[in-house]
């Protein structure tokens, strides 16, 4: 048995030495590709690879003291590993733990283990003609490499992530709404779950039971934004020098990708076919990124700028072939404009300039084959083709809140006498239907959403009471009218809908808890 142990010890020692050297050469941080100081690198190199080489040479020259020499080398290897562990723990998680540090730790531990095996077996090698020891040593080395790989992956990412995947959906429908969850944003509704983003990550909640379906939480990075794109939750986390973007299957929570990009703080994630358009908002918005929701590859980067100066991004909408960016540019006066970009490469298809005589920022909504921009007070809406940018029909916006539904804009208009919904064909500007909403005379529309032939508008009364009103997108027929529980004025509200289900989220100012109610 001793020949097998000796050969395994040599193999493990060789792997550990090589890994330690490689770890000291590779970066220890993702941000800035930083290394430890030279004195520390020299100390680890001396206690690890250099001392191992000296001990091997001395052990061959004086075999009688080989076990003592091996013990000294093993202790030195453990000391090198402890120094490396301390340094890896000092790396800021927001800067990103690169492979160099964990690889150095793994290499030093392996080298120490190799010396322990050699101390047990002694210095004499097995005959080169005996295949069994070599086969066992090779198998041991392969297992060690696999184990070290898992350990390095845990050290870099796994220790910061708390993730589960979805099990079987509930068989009974008993949500017990409203319910409260840790979060700050209702991302959307997908396949029977509501997606909630918090500062610590993403949670998915079964609409039928209200229980958590899956989660992806991080202890190292703050969550900035998230969106539903091509069946995935694309979540953005802030880092020291940019962002970490993680794609999660919306139905199960399984991770599709996780990649870092250079970028400023992110405010929104919008879907453009299978591309996630990641953008900031407001003054100094910075570049927009087009990221594949399937593999996380960066497809394009586009800077919102005109006349030599940056522009503020005021709104964003997208179809499968075009991304429409609403901007306010100030390099030469105030210029409100919309720019159409190809979803595949961010080439500019067209631009449209608004004539603004008042201060409200430009808004843009996506239709099936075009966009509608809304400007001014009173609001003026203009339809334009998504591909060519050619301007079509114009109409006066029929309400204070607009909810896009296919090729229709559904306007919600408050009134002391008769609050009402009005559906306008985006392409022609013609009114398709109008319905009154009795009992909402003092209410104001605060949020809306539409999908699958249904539109939902959330109304708030002066005392903070909320009512969710649903209507058929084709004819305005009432589908829902329910009161939403809210103990105060609930300053932050949102609505999302999919597959005939609607979810209302309310949040108190600066609160880290969302209250959800599902229909």
UniProtKB/TrEMBL annotation:
<keyword id="KW-0472">Membrane</keyword>
<feature type="transmembrane region" description="Helical">
    <location>
        <begin position="39"/>
        <end position="59"/>
    </location>
</feature>
<feature type="transmembrane region" description="Helical">
    <location>
        <begin position="66"/>
        <end position="91"/>
    </location>
</feature>
<keyword id="KW-1133">Transmembrane helix</keyword>
<feature type="transmembrane region" description="Helical">
    <location>
        <begin position="103"/>
        <end position="122"/>
    </location>
</feature>
<dbReference type="InterPro" id="IPR011047">
    <property type="entry name" value="Quinoprotein_ADH-like_sf"/>
</dbReference>
<protein>
    <submittedName>
        <fullName>Uncharacterized protein</fullName>
    </submittedName>
</protein>
<feature type="transmembrane region" description="Helical">
    <location>
        <begin position="134"/>
        <end position="155"/>
    </location>
</feature>
<keyword id="KW-0812">Transmembrane</keyword>
